[in-house]
Amino acid sequence: MIPQRNFFSMKQFICNMPLKHKIQAIVLLCIALLSTAALTGLHFVTTAYDSVLYKTAASALSSSALKVQNNLNNLNSMADLFLSDNNIQNYLGIMKDTQNPQEANLAYRHVYYSLGEYCTNFRKDHIRYMNLYQGTVSIHTHVPAGSAVLPAPIEQDLCERAKKADGATIWVTDYAEDYGLFMLKEIRRAEYLRLDTLGILLVCVDLNGLVTESSSPGFLQQQAQYLLYDNSLLMYHSPQIAEKALKQYQTLFPGHYNSLRIGNENSFYVKGQIPGFDWNYVCLIPFDNIRSSLNTSIRLVITILILSVILSFTLSSWLIDSITRHFDRLLMKIRRFGDGQKEPLDNDYDYENRKDELGILHRQFDHMVNEVNQLIQTNYLNEILIKEAQFKALENQMNPHFLYNTLESINWRAKILGAKDISAMAEALGSLLRITLDHRSKQVPLQKELELIQYYITIQKYRFEDRLNFQTDIPQNLLSCYVLKLTLQPLVENAIRYGLEENTEGCLISISAEPCPEKDQLIIYVKNDGSAFEDDLLSKLENRQIEPHGFGIGLLNIQKRMQLTYGEAYGLTLYNEEELAVAKLVYPLKPVILSPDAEASLTV
Fold it and tell me: Which of 4, 78, 278, 513 is the most exposed place for a label (fewest CB within 10 A)?
């Protein structure tokens, strides 16, 4: 209980500290963390640096083994090309089969030139020389100066090994130290798949030159030293490695890569296997120079950390004072505003050009002082203007009773004169006007809305006569359902306009309704032929992709009135179905009671 009380007391103390002291405490905490991080981070930096350096050095040294592999693979490919060379196959076959000395001599020369050509082309892969043996006949390319002459017993041993390989390419490492690395391949006749032996190809590889080129200094700037083993038997070592150290080296490499101390110097080694040849290798480089760069980095990191601590403390002290000074000014402004002094505080600092949060706070507060009074006065003036506009609208509105009485006079006068058409049109227009100008309720029974439409159709019938065909299919029990006033008649008017006025053919307009009890909805369809709605018409009208005018404004008005009255689940949908333009209206199945304010907000 006591620790919890102490915790809340400490929390309360921190909350009540001035902002300047809070920021100073945060800075001191950061400096303490930096000091701790400097002590512990140095160890992590050194370890990470060592790890990255070891991996990078290991990767660089391992790549030299891949270069060795690539050169050896090139020689394998060369042997396969030599075997598949049709000319060589042909001439070797002649040398073996012919009894004619001239033909044999000619074939011999062709094989000699081809062998020399292959040797020259693949000299970059460190071929010393190439020999070809067929029975007692042997063909030799030029042997470079300094190369040891291959004794006959070794030649015989190599040929025997090639024969035992049954045509496969083999590598012989037994004589690598003295005579070089040998690649051997028995050449068999490919013609008609006879597969009899045509000769034995011997390729002597300069292993020292191959390894030296592959381990040339890279980013490590050190010449690597190599040890190559075939089945744990040493087949090659770099000349820089003394003979007396070879036995010691064989027991010093426990892991894949690491650093170790040999004699008076540190070395880094990588141990692995040349893929595809089952030869193990150990690659070494002197590590003292590389280690010196690590020590330099450590000293540099320590220096940077110390300078960072000093610089952060100096800058933070200056920044804290520069920030809290402006907050103090803002607090003074707030106190003055709370005391009723709404005029901005004059100060010697201009915040108009500052783009940071402090500048925004000061500017917004200064603007707020002026905007409070401006908003009050603006709202007052807006109320006056709205009421004045409403009053003028009422003044300019024609008296509906005058219009209705005028139409009644026309109706009776037409009846007296026997003009039945004019009488019927005047009577329908009067009824239409009476219902339209009745603002007592914004919701009417569906039957009342259909009566309004019927008056409108009566007038249009005299204009379009038999071209206009109107029908309804409304169940009797749905006629008492309430709908929003003047939402169906504009759709019928649109159908007449686009189905008859812009079309010389007749037009069928139908109104149908159906209940949807599971959703508690009433669905009314207004369909007509002779016209079609554009795709996503309502969406395009709302997004101003199509400029609304005339009937477009009426569609948006119907949609907005229905959704304001009933919610987003209700409203108008326009689509086409089987050459019919369909307007679908969704109403609540049960009456919706609107407040007087809501009734007044819905304008037709």
Answer: 4
Ranges of beta strands (E only) in 154-278 are: 170-172, 181-188, 197-205, 225-230, 233-237, 257-262, 265-274
The three-class DSSP label of residue 486 is coil
* Phi then psi dihedrals of residue 155, to 5 deg: -60, -45
Which amino acid, residue 322? S
How many CB atoms sit inside 10 A of residue 278's CB?
11
> Which amino acid would we find at residue 515?
P
Would you state the structure tokens that stand for residue 114, as one six-digit string? 């081809």
Chain segment 528-563, per-residue pLDDT in tens: 988 888 888 888 888 878 776 556 667 888 888 888
Listed in sequence order, the residues at least 6 apart from 581 whose beta carbon sits closer than 8 Å to its beta carbon are: 495, 498, 499, 527, 528, 529, 531, 532, 533, 574
Pairwise CA distance, residues 134 & 96, whole Å: 8
Give the tens place of pLDDT for each residue, 413-463: 666 766 667 776 767 676 666 666 666 677 889 998 898 888 888 888 887
* Placement of tokens 């016209």 in the chain: 531
- Strand 580-588 vs strand 265-274: parallel, antiparallel, or unpaired? unpaired
199 closest CA partner among 116, 130, 255: 130
Residue at token pair 């690590």: 294
* CA 237 – CA 310 distance, rounded (Å): 54
Reduced to 3 states, what is the DSSP secondary structure of residue 256? coil
pLDDT in tens, 81-121: 888 888 888 888 888 888 888 888 898 899 889 888 888 88
Q: Hey, CA dihedral for 218, 219, 224, 227, is it positive or negative?
A: negative
Helix (H, G, I), strand (E, B) or coil at 548: coil
pTM of the model: 0.43
At residue 514, φ and ψ (nearest 5 deg) are: -150, 145
Cα distances from 353 to residues 30, 289, 356, 357, 359, in angstroms, run 32, 56, 9, 12, 8
Partnered with residue 172 across adjacent β-strands are 182
Give 494-498's long-range contacts (Cβ < 8 A, gap of 24+).
494/551, 494/554, 494/555, 494/583, 495/526, 495/528, 495/531, 495/581, 496/460, 496/464, 496/468, 497/551, 498/530, 498/531, 498/581
Classify residue 465 by its DSSP letter: G
3-class SS string, 32-68 = HHHHHHHHHHHHHHHHHHHHHHHHHHHHHHHHHHHHH
For 521, the enclosing helix (H) or strand (E) is: strand 521-528
Contact 536, 549 (CB under 8 A): no
The angle formed by the CA atoms of residues 529, 532 and 536, to the nearest 5 degrees, is: 145
